[in-house]
Amino acid sequence: MSQFEPDAKIFACSQSIHLAEKIASHYGVELGKVTFSHYSDGEFQPSFEESIRGIRVFLVCSTFPSADNLMELLLMIDAAKRASARHITAVIPYFGWARQDRKDKPRVPIGAKLVAKLLESAGATRIMTMDLHADQIQGFFEKPVDHLYASTIFLPYVKSLGLDNLTIASPDMGGSKRAYAYSKFLNSDVVICYKQRKQANVIDTMELIGNVEGRNVILVDDMVDTGGTLAKAADMMLAKGALSVRAICTHAILSGDAYEKIEKSAILELIVTDSIPLKRESSKIKVLSCTELFADVMHMVQNNKSISDKFII
């Protein structure tokens, strides 16, 4: 690195330290030192314990619940701005609040747009994230967004399984584009689940569009929250003659009794990334790390190189 372009530094929010340590190791630097002071009422204050003047800082923070994770990131961005960082890249492997990307009924917020504005107002000059719930969220930002795809991690693993009669499935209509992209790369069939909800996280009905008899099915989605959709879809597909059902979900939110649902379901294997730390281990859950992908792209961004070769689909 030339004297005119100092190297970058990587810092992490408190709930993403393990992920950030692995990213920093792949990047080739030590994770930067940041401390958090806590008041008795729950308020907290981040402090960078080393100079960041005139350099690019990467702030690693998945904004899964609680809202403290997002607040930590906003405060760290503001602190970096006031400490004269040259560039502030918010690295958000899991972009929370992304399900609120539109008004689906009257008098509700568009939470994803609000979060985008908060990040920009705080001082972020670039956003780096992976498998957004909706691609159009990129348009909520006026700053550059590097939207990475976990397909670069998942597809080599799927190919290594050597499954015959492979069918890619989308658990809902909204994920059909993702399913078709996977199927095109794997040269497989596609089926789609059509579901209706009574309310958030509660499925009313589910029907299958397509044939899975005698097929090895892989459900593909951007996240798994309660696990209800995957469990119901897997049971339905086995009842319709599928040989096996696996699931690929980038972000393992796994709230409530999701672990129990997955373990009791017909799903043979749930494959996720480490964008969100698992609450506990499960024999059915396989974690593939996204850290090398992020470290490589961070290097490219720092050195003003194209990242297009990091996109498989």
From TrEMBL:
Enzyme Commission identifier(s): 2.7.6.1
Protein keywords: ATP-binding, Cytoplasm, Kinase, Magnesium, Metal-binding, Nucleotide biosynthesis, Nucleotide-binding, Transferase
UniProt-listed SMART domains: Pribosyltran_N
Pfam families: Pribosyl_synth (PF14572), Pribosyltran_N (PF13793)
Source taxon at top rank: Bacteria
Enzyme class: transferase
Gene Ontology annotations for the cellular component aspect, listed alphabetically: cytoplasm; ribose phosphate diphosphokinase complex
GO molecular function, one term: magnesium ion binding
SUPFAM superfamilies given in the database record: PRTase-like
Entry annotated with the keyword RNA-binding: no
Protein name: ribose-phosphate diphosphokinase
CDD domains: PRTases_typeI
Gene Ontology terms describing biological process: 5-phosphoribose 1-diphosphate biosynthetic process; purine nucleotide biosynthetic process; ribonucleoside monophosphate biosynthetic process
All copies of domain Ribose-phosphate pyrophosphokinase N-terminal, residue ranges: 9-123
Catalytic activity line of the entry: D-ribose 5-phosphate + ATP = 5-phospho-alpha-D-ribose 1-diphosphate + AMP + H(+)
UniProt xrefs under Gene3D superfamilies: 3.40.50.2020
